[in-house]
Amino acid sequence: MKILITGGTGFIGRKLVAHLKVQHQVVVLSRQGSLAYQLLGHDVQVLDSLDRLDDLNDIDAVINLAGEPIAQGRWNLARKQQLCDSRWLLTEQLVDLIKLSSNPPKVLLSASAIGWYGRQDDRPLDEGCDHPSQEFTHQLCHRWESLALAASSEQTRVCILRIGLVLGLDGGALPKMLPPYRVGFGGPMGEGGQVVSWIHIQDLVRAWLYLLEHEECRGIYNGTAPTPVSNREFSQQLARALKRPHLLHIPAWALRLMMGEAADLVLTGQRVLPRRLQEAGFHFTFPALSQAFVNLLERPQPSK
Ligand SMILES: NC(=O)c1ccc[n+]([C@@H]2O[C@H](COP(=O)([O-])OP(=O)(O)OC[C@H]3O[C@@H](n4cnc5c(N)ncnc54)[C@H](OP(=O)(O)O)[C@@H]3O)[C@@H](O)[C@H]2O)c1
């Protein structure tokens, strides 16, 4: 297949491209020019702008991951607009190109996030949830998903993956969490009862490949492991995996001071279950957090 991927230079995209390019021809949309080749290898094609394309007639599949990092910077109005525009405008442009194609791609896989659910209590949520909390992350994800779903037609199926906290060592939140834990200063955030719905990067990449390969899959899927945990338990397990004490607690006010409204990302949570992925026959390699941490933190890491 010839696959067009946006956000292919990012944490998730780099891992996914490494798998895809073994079997497929990969075109990566990137603003980074030659750096993209350094990151991904010269066996991919790098495209600097969708404006160069009139349609996607020669593309078989599109994977849409691009977006400004959500946890970076304070969420003032300008930053919120950047977070939205970097996702919405690109998705809209991709969908326009799909619609202009006489031979459109067979599938559009588009990222979303469990922020769609907004802050929730402890109750389990699956893709059928009809009571999202109407806050910024919901508004961002809701429009992002709606724009992508507009590409759906008889020729093109659309799958949306609502991704949870991705655990890996080459990017995302985990490498930033490790330094305080390594010196014994790790601890739960806020009151610690908020639920963390996480996924191992390997399982996330496998989930994207599963949705790509299984033609019967379409619609919304949660990209989270089947065993979400409280923030307190996440912190305990992380300290245990690193064989460090787990003594401190990071108060909510300190996080609000540092991060402003973006502190919601860590101070609130939601218990998200991957019902549709599992019903579709997908099996997790790392269904439990302890297994994910053993794999990531207790074994020697292969060189990149
Ligand atoms: N990592 C997680 O825990 C997590 C959780 C939930 C959802 N997600 C979603 O999954 C997607 C991929 O996540 P990631 O962790 O791989 O992200 P990442 O490492 O920050 O990479 C995102 C990619 O998006 C592109 N990008 C960034 N800003 C852009 C802009 N203004 N315009 C166009 N492209 C832009 C960049 O590509 P170039 O610089 O090459 O153009 C970058 O490589 C994101 O949309 C994210 O919201 C991630």
Task: Tell me what you see in this structure.
This protein has 304 residues and is an alpha/beta fold. Helix content is 38%, strand content 16%. It has a single domain (2-298), classed as NAD(P)-binding Rossmann-like Domain (Rossmann fold), CATH 3.40.50. The chain has helices at 11-23, 34-40, 77-99, 136-149, 174-182, 201-213, 231-241, 252-259, 264-267, 275-279, 289-298; strands at 2-6, 25-29, 45-47, 61-64, 107-113, 124-125, 157-163, 165-167, 195-196, 198-200, 219-223, 229-230, 271-272. The protein has a 7-stranded parallel β-sheet, with helices on both faces. It has a two-stranded parallel sheet with strand order 6-13. Helix 1 crosses helix 6 and helix 3 packs parallel to helix 4 (136-149). The two termini are 26 Å apart. The model has no long low-confidence stretch (mean pLDDT 95). The structure holds NADP nicotinamide-adenine-dinucleotide phosphate. NADP nicotinamide-adenine-dinucleotide phosphate is lined by residues 7, 9-13, 30-32, 36, 65-70, 86, 90, 111, 113, 163, 165-166, 171-172. NADP nicotinamide-adenine-dinucleotide phosphate (NAP) binds next to helix 1, helix 3, strand 5 and strand 8.
What are the main properties of this structure?
single chain; 304 residues; alpha/beta; Rossmann fold; seven-stranded parallel beta sheet; two-stranded parallel ribbon; 16% strand; globular; binds NADP nicotinamide-adenine-dinucleotide phosphate; DUF1731; SDR39U1; TIGR01777 family oxidoreductase; Epimerase_deHydtase
